[in-house]
Amino acid sequence: MSRAPLAVAALVVVATAMAATGLAAPGPPTASQQSPAVGPSPDTTRVLRLTSADAAAFGTPALSVTGTLAAGATGISTAYRLERLDTALSVANTDAERRARIRTELDWATNRTTALVQRERDARDAYAAGTITTTEFLTVVGSVHAAATRIEGFLGGPDDNRALYTLADSYSNLTTRISQVNTRLQTVQGPVRERLAAVVDGDRDAVRVHVTVGDGVMLATRDGDTYVRETVVPGNLDAATTADYGDPIAFIGATYPWTKNHSRGVSYSLLGQYAVLFSASHDHGELSLYYDPSTTHVFVERQTRRLPQTPASYTTVNATDTTTLSVSEPYAGGPVNVRVETASGTPVDTTISVNGTVVGTTGDSGDRWFVSPAGEYTVAATVGGDRVTTTVTADPHPPAPGGNTTTTLPR
Fold it and tell me: Which residue numbers delimit the DUF7096 domain (predicted)?
């Protein structure tokens, strides 16, 4: 499990293929990435966006015997390596010998991390090019997460009782390298990936996920009344170290102002000289993110939102003589609320469909949450034999600030 705190017909939007940015920290972002966090609504937390989108769709990972075996083999390997290293250090005669043995294990973890990052990047490129399916891509992502989590546990940190970090604690240059590898591992881990990994390993039933790939990867799903989202923009992370972290809390206030103003405390920790991990519990859920002080950008963001507490700002309304159908502001992979009322404002319990596929009923409250597809789609409800529909458009990435004027209706 990662250290960070933690149904709709398939819709594919494929743009002109672009050269995908590598997940191995290729360098600072371009000018087009100057504003990585945008707010789909001023009334809830902002989200990290992709600045380009090559493909977007819903999909479900598959149970993978090879993925399960590979993840299990990694787990056995890391446990064995720690035991073997522990024994070797206890009989080492010199400090140089101890340092060399630790460096050998760190080299192994570094190479393994590089291979995992490359595997996901290759899958992302193939998915953007249309040569693998959504299911195949999500299966790879889940398998990579499982293996990366075991490597992360092997490396550990200063708070672990027994891990490579604590064994290397007296060698600052090695612990700095461990922090760098741990930082890279965060780009292939996350709460949605954790759910994908559980499906790949056969530990849970299928989960339906919205994925967008472009200059990064965005994954989103609904788990009961909880919306879960994670975004990685690898171009926002570079390989440089920094001793100047600036003012992390001021950074949160400027980049995620609503979260800062509605949180029950923002905490942060440093990953060596490479990144800052922020965690915040706010009125609508939880936010964690990794920020690179050298690029001044967020490169990993993970969110959970409690949908019953999340406000809905309705931007699309279609009314007949008897029924009003309202849909909140959409963006690809974002949480969308649809509300059905009588002309007098009484909630209506009815079935909601998106592009002809049923996503659920509104219940006594008259509203229903779902994860938005990308592009244009139709939302429909049938009340008293009459079908009410409206068409909405969700960009492959969230809209820029200053977009549509919205009106928040009572819920």
Answer: 1-204
Cα(269)–Cα(249) distance, integer angstroms: 11
Q: How many CB atoms lie within 10 A of CB 410?
A: 5
The percent of residues above 90 in pLDDT, for the chain, comes to: 55
CA 106/CA 96 separation, integer angstroms = 15
110, 134, 4: which is closest to 60 by C-alpha?
Answer: 134
DSSP 141-173: HHHHHHHHHHHHHHH--TT-SSSHHHHTTT-HH
Task: Fill in the amino acid letter for 287.
Answer: L
Place of tokens 């706010």: 282
DSSP SS3 for 379? strand
Mean pLDDT for the chain? 83
Question: What's the start-to-end Cα distance of the chain, in Å?
Answer: 36
* CATH topology for the 312-408 domain: Immunoglobulin-like (2.60.40)
∠ CA 400-402-406, rounded to 5°: 110
271-310 pLDDT, tens digit per residue, is: 877 889 999 999 999 999 999 988 888 999 999 999 999 9
Count, residues in the chain: 411
151 sits in the region (left: phi over 0; alpha: psi -120 to 50; else beta) called alpha
Asked whether the beta carbons of 309 and 377 are under 8 A apart, the reply is no
Instruction: State the amino acid at position 394 in one-letter form.
Output: A
Distance, in Å, from the CA atom of 280 to the CA atom of 278, rounded to the nearest integer, reads 7
> Domain spans of the chain?
31-307, 312-408
pLDDT confidence of residue 205 = 83
Please name the residues in contact with 301: beta carbons below 8 A apart, sequence gap of 6 or more. Answer: 37, 47, 48, 229, 230, 231, 287, 288, 289, 290
Confidence category of residue 204, pLDDT binned at 50, 70, 90? confident
